[in-house]
Amino acid sequence: TTAVGEVFRYIVEAPPGMDPNEVRALQDWVVRPQLRIVSGVADVVSFGGTVKEYQVQVDPAALKRYGVTIDQVSQALTANSANVGGGQVRRGDEALLVRGIGIFDSMDDIGRVIVSASAGKTVLVSDLGTVSAGFRPRSGVVAFNGNDSVVEGIVQMSKGSNAAKVVADVKLAVDAVNARLPKGVRLKTIYDRTQLIDHTVRTVGENLLVGAALVIAILIVFLGNWRAALIVATVIPLSLLFAFIMLDARGIPANLISLGAVDFGIIIDSAVVLVEALMVRLALQDYDPAGDLSPYAWRKRTLKQTVVELGHPILFAKAIIIVAFIPIYTFQRVEGKIFSPVAFTLSFAMLGAIVLSMTLVPSLLAWTVKRHPMAERHSAWMARLTASYRRLLARAQARPVAVFAASGAVLVLTLALAPLLGSEFLPKLDEGNIWLTISLPNSTALEKTQEIEHKVRAILKSYPEVGNVISHVGRPDDGTDPKGPNNMEILADLTPRSSWRFNDKDALVADISARIRRMPGVPTNFSQVIEDNVEEALSGVKGEIAVKISGPELDVLTQASEQVAAILNGIAGAADVAAVRIGGQSEIDIVIDRVRIARLGVNVADVNGAIQTALAGVAVNTYFEGGRRFDITLRLQERSRASVNDIAALQINLPGGVGTVALGDLARIEVRQGAARISREAGERNASVKANLLGRDQGSFVAEAQQKVAAKVHLPAGYQITWGGQFENQQRAVQRLQVIVPITVLLIFSLLFWAFRSVRKALLILAIVPFTLIGGIAGLAAAGLHFSVSAAVGFIAVAGISVQNGVIMVEQIVALAKGPATLVASAAEGAAQRLRPILMTALMAGLGLLPAALSHGIGSETQRPFAVVIVGGIVSATFFTLLLLPLAYPYFAERASQD
Localized where (predicted)? Predict the structure, then answer.
């Protein structure tokens, strides 16, 4: 499984008064096996409740009185319950299997086991202590709402499985299990990953539908022909289908961001250019009735010429955008898994659109022009807009230096203000829940942690914004989690925001945190279910920001981590700051004296075995109840292992059975403070400090924190500080972009040079690209968003669109420049003629993502920066393309000297 593998949680609801052991047994022996066989399920972890076991608890006084040791009791119990196979015996034509049956059939059988027999005197287990049905010492407790002890199941998905399908299959299995459970017992769902998936898919779906509607509306308005608009619109679903088929063939999963990044305007603009060019040609070229061609044949020939002439420019323009995505293809690790599907989805969709534009669209046009002229109709509003644009361009051409200077000044000012945006890896995805972690001092007993948990749970339940609350104290009994009894984790579902008293989730969390922190010594860490698992998987620390100090000595690491934590606490925006505790674990150390045990001939293993059996207890055999199996455990009676003196009195066997010796005579027993945890990376010890952020971006916080820590924390030689968490992902992505983006620009320049055979024209088109930053940065500022990897992907995409629009305009200017007109006049006329297709493609690309840019639904957080940058970037790119490119063309053209 992976960090996002926990997809489903449930509790076993049982009627009041039902034996807790039976509730947990139903989970372990009925529910869990049925859910584990569901396809895509890696494991089902049981947490909470009591695990039944049969307990043999012996009295040290009885052991001493009968002259036996606890090791002898252990050996007797291990040797007296088993079945064996005795092969086969032939009886006539039959072959009879031989079985030796000797397993325990009742608790009385356990008590009747002989421990020793000498001189006609036998010692039974029942003579030495008690045999009873009990439960394993609890390492964790789960509470739900007002119930202080429940049994929970956590379903973990296999790596690479589809979460929606796995959860759907698990729900079917849960329904089947519920039908088999005893009356009054049922499984109740408390966490379902598909709820988040459904919310996000619904948000993305609504944005896509509204975006598609806006794109089609733009087509109808600009083309003035509903048939032409409908033909272009057919490309949308078919190109998406092509993309999904290709993604499936490549084994690339579509995710929230890749689906939300689908921009119908970018996808269908090739079909728009083709249809618009055909309509213009049919309107400008007069049909000659005296010619050899019929009206339909003439229109069909015009269509063929249009497709042939525009095929190369359309393919080239799309190639530019796909090449612009190269930096995204190179992302690795977390950012690669998130954003690579964006590039592949858009690239496959554009490839499908190119194929459809060259095949399906001409076929539909040929069928349509047979019945309808399809010529462009006069549009008064478009004519007025074009006239206004011509006047604006004429005024700009009269003062080119002033226009260039003003445009450059706006760009420089925007870039100067850009750092104020702040930066982060990704905006937080609102999962609709709160995951609260509290770590008390390391020596805190399970019962004390439960007492604090009860109070915290009551605080959470007092908020009407909070729905169900399930809490976990300690760890599951399967040993898969290293957390101690001092740790608690609480999952709180949130109600719909329409009824909230708080403006946003951050305000709710801040209020809850303030109330909990009124309890002394209770540190908090607020996160979300998936976010918490991902953060812990990234850095091993539960926090957005992780600072790790590595080196050899634990005391130095502890002191440095506390110093770093104090510095972070003093920086604005820091929340839930804490140094992960290394020490503070109280322990009883039994230090074996090797000289003494050597004198008596006792081995270390003998001493340690007796300690483990007597104090912790060991499973010495198995008791069967039908198909269920329960451990038979052996240990001293609880009252005989409650103090250091009791431990010192434990009797250890001497070799040859000559007698026993007290543990206190073989070892030094002392209570001291030890290390609770020692973390290592690359074989080196480290201490960690974690922090979350409220109301501040990661980039500026880390920059300030690094500066202050470097100035105030001075480590000895052999120690170092590293920074990680989500910030590490951002840094890695930015560093890769710094290398790959220049290479990509060089590739785009090469394509432009190959298309125009001109360095100047290629540089002219690329020179417009930086102006996309103006709209993108302004959009992020207006939306209150930080610069993130999602926004960077948006800038990459809008750069490709900007180059495409520049190619559309320059091609027309180059064609007109071959005539007698001057370069200035050719540039102005070419720009005016390309006004409509450029506006159409820009508006479609912008409006296609406008719903995503304005969305605030669950799941919109991660795609909003991408959409906002594209919408804002297209506005500035279109404006400056229409203004600066025709203005600058005469200076970049090879015929510039003629003017």
Answer: Cell membrane
pLDDT at 897 (0 to 100): 40
pLDDT at 296: 62
Q: What is the pLDDT of residues 528-553, one digit of tens each?
A: 887 777 777 666 677 788 888 888 88
310 vs 796, residue with greater confidence: 796
Q: How many residues are given for the chain?
A: 899
**What's the pLDDT tens digit per position in 123-135?**
999 999 999 999 9
- The pTM (predicted TM-score) of the whole model is 0.78
Q: Which amino acid is at 398?
A: A
Which CATH superfamily includes the segment(s) 6-51+137-196? Multidrug efflux transporter AcrB pore domain like (3.30.70.1320)
Q: How confident is the model at residue 278 (pLDDT cuts 50, 70, 90)?
A: confident
What are the residues whose beta carbons fall under 8 Å from the beta carbon of 19, sequence distance 6 or more?
A: none
In this chain, the answer to whether the domains covering 225-375 and 433-527 adopt an identical fold is: no
Position 896 confidence tier, pLDDT thresholds 50, 70, 90:
very low
B/e letters for 711-731, b = 16+ CB within 10 Å, e = fewer, are: eebebeeebebebbbbbbbbb
For 5, 253, 270, 884, the CA distances from 340, given in Å and listed in that order, are: 21, 10, 24, 33
In the chain, % helix, strand, coil (3-state, to 5) comes to: 55, 20, 25
Query: Is the Cβ–Cβ distance between 708 and 574 less than 8 Å?
Result: no
CB 85 within 8 A of CB 97: yes
Give the span between the Cα atoms of 360 and 452, in whole angstroms: 68
How far is 591 from 569, CA to CA, in rounded Å?
41
Fold for 225-375, please state it. Answer: Multidrug efflux transporter AcrB transmembrane fold (1.20.1640)
The domain made up of 433-527 has a fold known as Alpha-Beta Plaits (3.30.70)
Is domain 393-422+758-899 in CATH 3.10.150.10, yes or no?
no
Q: pLDDT tens-digit profile of 623-644?
A: 999 889 999 999 999 888 888 8
Relative to beta strand 525-527, strand 574-579 is: unpaired
Is the pLDDT at 898 greater than 50? The verdict is no
Which residues lie below 8 Å from residue 531, measured CB to CB, with a gap of 6+? 428, 429, 431, 435
Distance between CA atoms of 171 and 573, rounded to whole angstroms?
41
Give DSSP secondary structure letters for 401-467: HHHHHHHHHHHHHHHHHGGGG-B-SSPPP--SEEEEEEE--TT--HHHHHHHHHHHHHHHHT-TTEE
Q: Strands 466-474, 147-157: parallel, antiparallel or unpaired by DSSP?
A: unpaired
Q: What is the per-residue pLDDT across 296-326, written as a single tens digit (0 to 9) for each?
A: 676 677 777 777 777 777 777 778 778 877 8
| Rounded distance between C-alpha atoms, residue 484 and residue 473, angstroms | 9
Domain extents for the chain? 6-51+137-196, 225-375, 393-422+758-899, 433-527
